[in-house]
Specification:
By secondary structure, the protein is α+β, with helices and mostly antiparallel strands. It folds into 3 domains: about 110 residues, Roll (DNA Polymerase III, Chain A, domain 2), CATH 3.10.150; about 120 residues, DNA Polymerase III, subunit A, domain 2 (DNA Polymerase III, Chain A, domain 2, Roll), CATH 3.10.150.10; about 110 residues, DNA Polymerase III, Chain A, domain 2 (Roll), CATH 3.10.150.10. The protein is built from 7 helices and 27 strands. The termini are far apart.
């Protein structure tokens, strides 16, 4: 194998594929990146039996071939190379990388020991990359990091014709985002549980265009601009999130989201970890309070438009901030029942059902 490729193109593709490499691979070969050069293309692949990543870039291939190279060291090297073309050629059990006056000899691993990558599942639809990335950023923070409960570490994707809903929960909050997309066939219905960390990585690496989504045989696939990720799906079991988000709310408070976020962050500076942010809503304003323990206390008052009765309610600060960060309008609405029941964060304006909904548990007021 021998090819020549642009340094920035190679470094970007290597970094993207190497992101799925396991920290503690079950087999040594799973720490490698598979390089396949043929025609005018170089394909870089990584696989850990659960997640696969493929990136295809243009290259000047003089000798077609395949090589399995330690992925993390290749990523470190390509990132530090000078801005000159890179040549990689295999010689025996070594891959020689040359860039300007720099040369590295990397020991290769047996290509035949690398597992066969899964094929991309059948395409079921496509969505604009911006909408996809926005939906993932709104929903994924509500997923759990507790690997002992795999169901809670995923994002539920419900497909119903031209509408898709993403939802996630960690038992203390529920985030859901609905958006339109272009299905492969009319009336398509499907559901899948995708690991949240994979969706976040896919969304983070998008460079524009649209995202093609595939589903089948317990695998989901996401393809955009020559880069494909496949992931093994989680068990489809999930809570009935729609019923929990549908309710009549007797108390509503509208306020500007950016000042609200900034005030919470300031006041929370004197709050101990996992303590409450207390919100006291009255006509025309909200009083934000935190602390009162060993560190001190903080208060701030903001304008708020309130309908319904006055209310005092408390939340875990980071949970509240995660919900507010998902709001893409200038105004945010807090829908409330009572101090002891969850509150629903939605965007304003809009008379129709909001696209983004975030239900967060309240904390007992001391």
């Amino acid at each position: 194998m021998k090819f020549r490729v642009n340094r920035d193109v190679l470094a970007d593709a290597v970094a993207w594929a190497a992101r799925v490499l396991p920290n503690r691979p079950a087999l040594p070969v799973l720490s490698g990146l598979l390089l396949e050069a043929d025609g005018d293309d170089l394909v870089l692949s990584a696989f850990d039996y659960d997640v696969s990543a493929r990136a295809s870039v243009e290259a000047d291939v003089s000798e077609p071939g395949r090589a399995l190279i330690p992925g993390r060291i290749l990523a470190e090297i390509t990132r530090s190379l000078p801005a000159m073309p890179v040549e990689i050629a295999t010689s025996g059990s070594e891959a020689v990388l040359t860039c300007g006056s720099a040369e590295f000899g990397l020991l290769t691993m047996p290509v035949e020991d690398f597992p066969t990558l899964p094929t991309a599942p059948p395409r079921v639809g496509a969505i604009g990359g911006g909408v996809f990335a926005s939906a993932v950023s709104q929903v994924a923070p509500a997923s759990s990091r507790d690997e002992t409960l795999p169901m809670l570490t995923g994002v539920r994707i419900d497909i119903g014709g031209e509408t898709v809903t993403m939802a996630a929960t960690d038992r203390y909050r529920i985030a859901a985002r609905e958006f339109a997309w272009r299905p492969e066939r009319p009336g398509l219905t499907a559901a899948a549980m995708v690991p949240a960390r994979v969706l976040v990585e896919v969304a983070r690496s998008l460079r524009g265009g649209e995202v093609s989504v595939g589903l089948g045989d317990g695998v989901a696939g996401f393809e955009s601009v020559g880069r494909t990720t496949t992931v093994r799906l989680l068990d489809e079991q999930f809570i009935d999130y729609r019923s929990r988000l549908a309710d009549d709310w007797p108390i509503r408070a509208d306020l500007r989201v950016t000042p609200f976020i900034e005030a919470i962050k300031r006041v929370a500076l004197v709050a101990e970890s996992n303590t409450a942010i207390r919100l006291s809503f009255s006509r025309g304003q909200v009083l934000i309070q935190a602390g009162g323990g060993d560190l001190g206390r903080g208060t701030e008052v903001l304008d708020a438009e309130l309908s319904g009765g006055d209310i005092r309610i408390a939340f875990q600060s980071q949970f509240l901030l995660d919900g507010l960060a998902g709001v893409e309008t200038e105004l945010v609405r807090l829908n409330m029942h009572s101090p002891s029941r969850p509150a629903l964060i939605t965007e304003v304006p809009g008379d129709a059902d909001p696209d983004f909904r975030y239900l967060v548990m309240s904390l007992r007021l001391g």
